Amino acid sequence: MDGNYILMTRREKVCINICYLDFSDLNSSTQFVVGLALCTLGAIASPEMSRDLASEVERLMKSPNAYIRKKAALCAFRIIRKVPELMEIFLPATRSLLSEKNHGVLITGVTLITEMCENSPDTLLHFKKIVPNLVRILKNLILAGYSPEHDVSGVSDPFLQVKILRLLRILGRNDPDASEAMNDILAQVATNTETSKNVGNTILYETVLSIMDIKSESGLRVLAVNILGRFLLNNDKNIRYVALNTLLKTVYIDTSAVQRHRSTILECLKDPDVSIRRRALELSFALVNTNNIRTMMKELLVFLEKADPEFKAQCSSSIVNSAERFAPNKRWHLDTLLRVLVAAGNYVRDDVVSCTIQLISESTSQHGYIAEQLWRALEKDTLDRQPLIQVATWCIGEFGDLLLYGAPVSEDSSVRVTEDDIIVVYQRLLWSTQNTVVTKQYTLLSLTKLSTRFQSGTEKIRQIIDLFGSHLHIELQQRGVEFSQLFRKYEHLRPALLERMPPMESGRQINGTSDLTNGETEDVEPIMGEEGNLLIGERKSGETPDSSALLDLLEGPDAGGKSDVRPPEPIKQPTTNIDLLDLLGGLDLGSPTPEGQNPPPPLPVQNNGLFNINQSSNFLVDGLLGSPSEVTNSKYFHFYYFSPALPRITAYEKNGLKITFSLERQQDNSSTTIITMSAVNDSLSPISEFLFQAAVPKTFQLQMLSPSGTVLSPAGLVTQVLKITNPNKAPLRMRIRVSYSVDGLTVQDQAEVNNFPAESWQ
Fold it and tell me: In the chain, N or C terminus with fewer CB closer than 10 Å?
């Protein structure tokens, strides 16, 4: 024994000495020595030491000395956290603590029971019998007179009240009988607690949380929401923030009760505190419905006009989403989107531009009206509104004849627009150094289309387009050269090629989903080709996943340090493609055709061999053009056919987040599987900064399109399309990683998906 003791480290010796010291001090006749020993044991005891001394701690919980009982209960609380299986030892002594008159012992007993109930479902059932006891203790605290020993700002022992309310919330969750027993006392606490001091507000806040978490009566829920409404009027910004945060979780449980405080919530949008404005904005969008859409949008558009830049992107996208879901009519919907484009300026996301163009295209009865409204907006200074220019030029290019020669569609359209007026504005847009290349692409294509809408003035348009044949930017130069040919060699084809586009189909039909979050459209937008075939265009927005996180995913027993992954297609925002290439080293990041397999054959279309539409082109801007290297060689549109959907599988389900995969086989390329990832938020807390990543073994090729969004409100949905090429017909396996923020915490998790049906690769 002595030799072993010599070989021990200093830390081990200290622990053994403390153990012997504690064991002897636990039997001391001085209460403070016993209390110190219990505190030391709870703080530094190892699991083995806790098992050895648990019986001694349980014995001291029955001590006649209230001070020792309190310290023993606190020590038991810490032991249970370290060794949960010791919980049964303390059950009899713990229940007896609720009959104490000493508030110190009582509050430690309630704390110990709360810890047990949170960690053991069996213990939770055992303690459901104490609900009447807790109700009686809480009632005595409310009705008790002034007690200087426990009074805090006129409230009797608020710390004990908060602990009891928290325990009642745990015991009453999903239990109608227990909830019924505590309804009356919760109503008394809510109505009798003084709100002039923070201690009263603390108790009311815990009361509200308990009411909303148990199976409470509807009247009690309305009372809880009204308390939160009073919190919104409090001068303390922390209380206002807490109220907004709680209402954001409550709104999906009892929307009608929260609607009564809509005006107060909208007033919080003017609060100087940025955190309060952000929570008020999220809550305001959660309150929008068919009945209040006009009023809410009016207030939210006023907020958008004056909002800080950090709010404009989220706010504009959410307004578009709400208008799409609840718009009373097409004209109101178009007016709202136009106001968003004007108010948000360059902070408008790409999804808003594509959504607006799609809506204009399908609103056939409003083409003349919206063309006139967009023209008036375009006449003004638009340097800080690039998305507005893009939408306006697209619309005028399509429906310029209605703007020029159509019947007046509004009361104040007394002054007619002339062809010269339009050409002057277009020249200003094209020669402006402030406009982006993408905006000039929209404008140049629109001007070319106007040559078939004008009754005269075609020569002026040709002269402007000819000037771009020698432009320094290759994209604009390419368009200038190609469009010039439509005025010379292919003059006879120009009217047919530049005719008005048919109404666009909604991009959501690809994935079969009807609800998207934050107004973002799907990444892949369809154009219906001849005989109803589906033509896939490019995605509109998104961000490249973090490259280092992707590299971590690729590491695994089957990856072999490599993976044939195709990065997302280029987007207009800066990406980290260079970093990704550096990290992956010599990996082949392209998308080569597997050996022995020919690319899918294209279907000919009557386009006379001039132009092509491919997956890397922007059909809203280019419409008729391919890339510079393909414009003279490609003669075909590419169509993709999909087989009937395969069974949907669940890839991930944890902490209220559920991810499912919808599978489709691409018939013209039997080795390609299309996976539509759908992430649904089943919790009551909104999820932000959502990121989905995936990796496959090196024998596969994976392409991930950008997601439909990064925010999942409760019951919200985010989708993302994955394309997997499996040339060897091997069983499909995938490793996924998800990361997101919820309730201020960052969550990161990963899983393996091995339950793909055999039809997805055979």
Answer: N
Strand partners, 736: 694, 751
> Token pair for residue 44?
């530094």
User: What are the start-end ranges of the H helices in 2-46?
Assistant: 2-7, 10-25, 31-44
Q: How many domains, the chain? A: 2
Question: For the chain, what is the mean pLDDT?
Answer: 78
DSSP codes, 651-665: EEEETTEEEEEEEEE
Q: Looking at residue 469, what DSSP letter applies? A: G
Q: Are 54 and 89 in contact (CB under 8 A)?
A: yes
Domain boundary among 443, 466, 499: 499
Q: What is the CATH number of the domain that holds 726?
A: 2.60.40.1230
Phi-psi region of 527 (alpha: psi -120 to 50; beta: other; left: phi over 0): beta
Q: What are phi and psi of 36, to 5 degrees?
A: -65, -40
Please check whether residue 267 lies inside any domain of the structure. no
Which pLDDT score, from 0 to 100, does residue 575 have?
A: 38
Asked whether residue 284 is assigned to any structural domain, the reply reads no
Question: Is the residue at 475 inside a domain?
Answer: yes
Structural domain that includes position 701: 648-760
Residue 107 falls inside a structural domain: no
DSSP 8-state assignment for residue 435: S
Question: In which region does residue 609 sit, left (phi positive, over 0), alpha (psi from -120 to 50) or beta (all else)?
Answer: left
Whole-prediction pTM:
0.60
Between CA 383 and CA 390, with CA 386 as vertex, the angle to 5 degrees is 130
**How many Å apart are CA 169 and CA 188, to the nearest integer?**
16
Structure tokens at 728: 């060897």
